[in-house]
Design goal:
Layout: H1 2-27, E1 35-36, E2 45-52, E3 55-75, E4 79-94, E5 97-99, E6 101-106, H2 109-112, E7 115-127, E8 133-137, E9 140-145, E10 151-157, E11 164-171, E12 181-195, E13 199-205, H3 207-211, E14 213-222, E15 230-234, E16 237-242, E17 248-253, H4 255-258, E18 265-273, E19 277-293, E20 295-301, H5 303-310, E21 315-326, E22 330-334, E23 337-338, E24 347-353, E25 361-369, E26 372-382
Antiparallel strand pairs: 1-2, 2-26, 3-19, 3-26, 4-5, 4-12, 6-11, 7-10, 7-12, 8-9, 8-11, 13-18, 14-17, 14-19, 15-16, 15-18, 20-25, 21-24, 21-26, 22-23, 22-25
Length: 383
């Protein structure tokens, strides 16, 4: 009797279970439409309404702004920097007037700290030799002579060089030729700083290039088989280092990689090698973005989803930022309305919305911004 009773009880329970399952299948269960996820602040349960990838969002349409050419040079030996250059200049002096020249010669700290000497070179193209040619550096006479039609090279010791210097070129009085004036015409006039062995190159960066920066490309050639460690720095920040560079070196720098070094205004790029090392056709190419990449997507919200949003639930947009090309403000709009987007970081990000931001039926979502991001794994849902 006991076994029969147990069997009857089991059959009854089985019938009840089938009835319950059938009822659930007929009326449905909200839990069947919810999936698990790692949504921030959602307690782990959400309903996915739409999902898609975006790709690159933000600044786009990269084009070359400028190519800064540093030329060819040899590291590990004396370097030169032209501080002043004039194709020609004329000085004269008579008893009733004179025409002299005075220049301010500035030397940057990066060169001054490695300075060996300063050289002044020029040729005499024309002169009447009535009086002397006089050259002064920081009020000290370094030349006072009758200068014939020759090339001249004057050397100024490191101890007599400052960050700001004065250079004066003048002619002496014409002596017995009181009715005339001493005249000198100089050509190929140069003031050259000799320093080293590290090479410095200065260049300008303009505000529009920083604001629309897409990438910078450092490019140069080396002679195959050269030995030595090369280090390249931008404003003191190392951007390249190699002990065995290729024949053609091309390095690309996005703003996220170089933004802590580059700046508006004067910039200094330095090149250093442990041995004598030849570098050819060194240049830095600047690319800027001239447009904006806007991504739009459509998704449908059912009546059931709107009912969920109208309750105690909230809408969530989750997305992955795979790469930040450039820091900036990401703008997300739902049906033309800006959402509250916090600081964007690499990895998972979330943005909230409510039922007033969407509608039953087709909705439009737009991603744009002043920065640049690679975005994937977008999920729109209710939690």
């Amino acid at each position: 009797m006991s076994n029969k009773f147990n069997m009857d009880e089991f059959i009854i329970l089985l019938i009840v279970a089938f009835v319950i399952i059938g009822a659930l299948m007929l009326i449905g269960t909200p839990l069947a439409n919810w999936s698990e996820g790692n949504w921030s602040g959602t307690g782990g349960k959400f309903k996915v309404i739409a999902s898609f990838d975006l790709g690159k969002v933000g600044v786009s349409e990269s084009q070359v702004s400028r190519t800064i050419k540093f030329g060819s040079f040899t590291l590990g030996q004396t370097q030169t920097e032209t501080l002043k250059e004039m194709s020609s200049l004329i000085v004269s002096r008579g008893y009733f007037g004179e025409d002299s020249k005075k220049f301010e010669i500035n030397i940057g700290a990066h060169i001054l700290n490695n300075l060996k000497d300063v050289k002044i070179t020029f040729g005499i193209e024309e002169t009447n030799l009535y009086g002397n040619l006089i050259v002064k550096w920081n009020d000290k006479v370094i030349l006072d002579t009758l200068a014939n039609l020759n090339r001249y090279e004057l050397t100024i010791d490191r101890d007599n060089v400052k960050d700001t210097n004065t250079l004066e070129i003048s002619a002496g009085t014409p002596g017995i030729y009181f009715w005339a004036a001493t005249q000198y015409k100089l050509n190929n006039f140069k003031v050259i700083a000799e320093y080293g062995p590290e090479k410095f190159a200065s260049f300008q960066i303009y505000p529009n290039e920083i604001s629309a920066w897409d990438k910078g490309v450092l490019r140069f050639y080396t002679t195959t088989g050269q030995q030595g460690q090369i280090s390249i720095k931008l404003n003191g920040v190392e951007i390249y280092s190699s002990s065995n560079p290729k024949h053609l070196v091309e390095e690309e720098y996005e703003f996220s990689e170089i933004g802590n070094a580059i700046k508006v205004g004067d910039n200094i790029m330095s090149f250093k090698a442990t041995n004598v090392f030849e570098m050819d056709d060194v240049e830095f190419e600047i690319y800027v973005s001239s447009g904006s990449m806007v991504k739009e997507r459509s998704f449908n919200i059912s009546k059931e989803d709107m009912n969920l949003l109208s309750g105690n639930n909230k809408g969530i947009i989750e997305f992955n930022v795979d790469k930040i090309y450039r820091e900036g403000v990401l703008t997300i709009k739902l049906n033309g309305k800006n959402l509250n987007v916090q600081t964007i970081r690499e990895g998972k990000n979330t943005v909230n919305f409510d039922d007033s931001d969407v509608k039953e039926g087709i909705n439009e979502i737009t991603f744009s911004g002043t920065g640049g991001w690679e975005i994937s794994g977008v999920k729109i849902g209710v939690a």
